Amino acid sequence: MSKIIFVLSGPNLNLLGTREPEIYGYATLKDVEDQCRAKAAGLGFEIDFRQSNHEGVLIDWIQEARLKACAVVLNPAGYGHTSVAILDSLKTLAIPIVECHLSNPAAREEFRRSTYVSLAATGIVSGFGAKSYELAIEAAAALVAKSGL
Ligand code: DQA
C-alpha cells in the first residue's frame, strides 16, 4: 500500500511569499513544502510535492497519482474556478482528495466562491494560510487510515 500523498499546487503558487502577501502570506512555497514534509512524516506518510503553472501538467500528475498515491492534496489555484478538465481527471481517482486554499475563496470575489474541484473533493481546507496545507495533509492521512487503503 502506498504511503505517498501527492501535494499539488497550481498556477502562480511558485510566487508565494511575494505574490499578494496580504492575502497569501509571506511563507514561500519551499517553506510550505518543508512544513508539509514534517507534518506528513509525523503521521507516517511521505509527500510528493509539486507545483505547475500548466493545466495539462497538473492533469498528468493527477493521473500519475492513480498509480502511485494514497491521497491527493490539491491547491488548484485559479484553475479551480475554470477547469472542467482538472475536475474530470480528479473523477478518475478512487483515493481521498483534499482541496486546499491558503485564502478563503468563499469570502472573496464572486468568481472565486465555487470551484469545479469541489465537485470531486472529499473535503476542503481553506483560509488558514500556509497552515491550510498541513491541515489538508492531516485530513488526507485520517481519510486514508479510515479507508484502510
Ligand atoms: C487560491 C485561491 C484562488 O482563488 C486563487 O486563484 C489562487 C490561490 C488560494 O490558495 O487561496 O491562486 O487557491
Structure, described:
This protein has five helices and five strands; from the N terminus they run E-H-H-E-H-E-H-E-E-H. The chain has a single domain, classed as 3-Layer(aba) Sandwich (Rossmann fold), CATH 3.40.50. With 149 residues, the protein is of the alpha/beta class. The chain is 38% helix and 17% strand. It is globular, with a radius of gyration of 14 Å. The protein starts with a strand and ends with a helix. Helix 2 packs parallel to helix 5 (131-147) and helix 3 (55-68) runs parallel beside helix 4.
Task: List its salient traits.
149 residues, 5 helices, Rossmann fold, globular, 5-stranded parallel beta sheet, alpha/beta, binds 1,3,4-trihydroxy-5-OXO-cyclohexanecarboxylic acid
The structure class reads alpha/beta
- Please give the alpha-carbon distance between the first and last residues: 7 Å
Question: How large a portion of the residues is in β-strands, by DSSP E?
Answer: 15-25%
Identify the strand order in the major beta sheet.
2-1-3-4-5
The strand count comes to 5
Task: Examine the coordinates and then state which fold CATH places here, giving the name of the CATH topology.
Answer: Rossmann fold
- Mean pLDDT over the full residue set: 97
CATH-level-2 architecture: 3-Layer(aba) Sandwich
Main sheet specs: 5 strands, parallel
* Cofactors and ligands: 1,3,4-trihydroxy-5-OXO-cyclohexanecarboxylic acid
Helical content band? 25-40%
